């Protein structure tokens, strides 16, 4: 990254997993490198100039995964738990947490992961005929000082939380999708070296599903401990135990990073969104077919 | 039968001897009585002196006679206890009521037992002196003179030799990297990184391993001022358990004559943790027990077991 600044960030560290700053980069370098047209460069000078008064510091730390990322976390598996037959989302969550407490897990506060979708504005699409890419900007309460920006199948950017402000500045190039905010909230449970987070996924006002995240802190290589993780998942998810997440297969024995967890959450949210779309489409079909039935009752 | 007879004879002699002792005592006390009374009841001083000396002589003669009599009798009595290996306590065997007071048989057993104990203790101390298991020089206080002799072989090795041994071990195991540093004088500290599984801090004194701490691969092993943190333990229960087992291994692998072999055995054992999260327990076949993977590695076979599954 060309614009690597020499100064280290002076941001204080967060509670757990505070992401350390190995080196400091200008956030826009990421954007420029990920295929922005040359016209962006004009904006570049505006953003970094001291005239932008909304930041306490003009420095902006940013790292591109995986090459320059120094931090690690325990191997984590994020999965969806289907809602039990004849039960509400809330009841299924309670069932699951009771099972965890029976196992001996201890409650340890709450967590929240949220995700907002952006799509590239039509005006910025170059003449090369690039398709509009979706970008997801996510936050995780486990890393309160960081913000994650992901492309589907693309690179993952880990930045300071004031990246959100930058996104406002960039609204000519990335536009927020309407009512796209999706988040999961719930309780953290600690069992031995395992950290289990059971959350309710909500889109707008209504609950759409259940997310289960299991982190095994001591191990940092996904392929090493998948069997062990699977045994633990089976102990409380039973028949709903998921298969190995796709991110496990991608990088053979690389060190697992927080960004991998965010990718899993992004995939989970997309899956739930698609399920909702299918549900709505189904309902629409039902409505139209019932209408046509009604019509058929009338003689033409 | 002859025994009983001789005892009977002796008993008679005893009775005579006792009365002879009584006679001796009374004659001796008469001597002192006479001395106490002094000279009296005679008109002339000469008469008094003569009577006193005669009386005193008589008394001494009777003492002499009684003493001779006692000596004669004591020869008759003899020394019956001398024949017995237990000396006087052997006389307990003469007690006719064996059933009520089985003192003698108990005494014999205790005697045998203590004899054996002494014999075995002697053998053990001989063997232990050949193979000194003492890890530190301070404890060799038994013979302070020998201490300087024992030190050169085990505790005072040139740092260059320690470096050589460690670098040889480092080359032996490709998945293990060993970083050696000497922050405080000549004692080496090793930071062993095993694959992407764990890190071990090993504190050495010469080629003796004094302390080990096992931590996770993603845990910080340095203090704020950049030194190796040899005091704080791992945040994860699994590595706290492995630390305990590693300390057990330190005490298990002991060969004071060849300290380099000890370090090599320990490292070989440690290397088996490369599969800490991948190897199921050899006994129950499961990965988890109370939320922990199989943390124990057998010292000989290096097989994985849960702490509670090993013998």
Automatic annotation (TrEMBL), chain A:
InterPro entries: Mediator_Med20. Pfam families: Med20. It is found in: Nucleus. Keywords: Activator, Nucleus, Transcription, Transcription regulation. One of its GO terms (cellular component) is mediator complex. One of its GO terms (biological process) is regulation of transcription by RNA polymerase II. GO terms for molecular function: transcription coactivator activity. The keyword Nucleus applies. Component of the Mediator complex, which is composed of MED1, MED4, MED6, MED7, MED8, MED9, MED10, MED11, MED12, MED13, MED13L, MED14, MED15, MED16, MED17, MED18, MED19, MED20, MED21, MED22, MED23, MED24, MED25, MED26, MED27, MED29, MED30, MED31, CCNC, CDK8 and CDC2L6/CDK11. The MED12, MED13, CCNC and CDK8 subunits form a distinct module termed the CDK8 module. Mediator containing the CDK8 module is less active than Mediator lacking this module in supporting transcriptional activation. Belongs to the Mediator complex subunit 20 family. Component of the Mediator complex, a coactivator involved in the regulated transcription of nearly all RNA polymerase II-dependent genes. Mediator functions as a bridge to convey information from gene-specific regulatory proteins to the basal RNA polymerase II transcription machinery. Mediator is recruited to promoters by direct interactions with regulatory proteins and serves as a scaffold for the assembly of a functional preinitiation complex with RNA polymerase II and the general transcription factors. This is Mediator of RNA polymerase II transcription subunit 20.
